[in-house]
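Onboarding guide, step 5: your first structure request.
Type a short instruction followed by the sequence, for example:

Predict the 3D structure of this protein.
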Amino acid sequence: MGISKRTAVVNSNINVTPMVDVMLVLLIIFMVITPMLQKGVSVDMAKTNSPAPMPDADKEDSILVSVQRDGAVYFGSDKINPDELTTKVKDRLTNKTDKRVFIKADQRARYGKVVEIVDDIRSAGVDEVGLLTEQRKATVTAPRPAAAK
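The system replies with structure tokens like these:
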């Protein structure tokens, strides 16, 4: 009878496959959820070099009016008739001491339409109107070639 020694080989490597699976699932979840976190209606806002920060626009109780490029007006995420805007803003501001409304207008919306919306909001008794914009992305320009002499 021969006695053979069996030695178990110990694997000291870390198995990263479960971690990769979890990370991919989290990535997919965040990709699906992120567009839903945006408040109001999606519009292509005007881009500026130095926008003023307005952190109050992201609050849960802030009043947001959106103007799309075709002239459609949204109060929060509800499409409304522009004639009803003044009364809706008045109703929402009855209990508030901070009378501030934020406007998110499409960059290709007609200027006259946006001015009408601002005027309707002002006539509702709003103290401050904030126009939301986005930061313009910095473009890298190639250096100019030197002029030949």
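Each response can be followed by summary notes, for example: The helical segments are 17-33, 85-92, 111-123.
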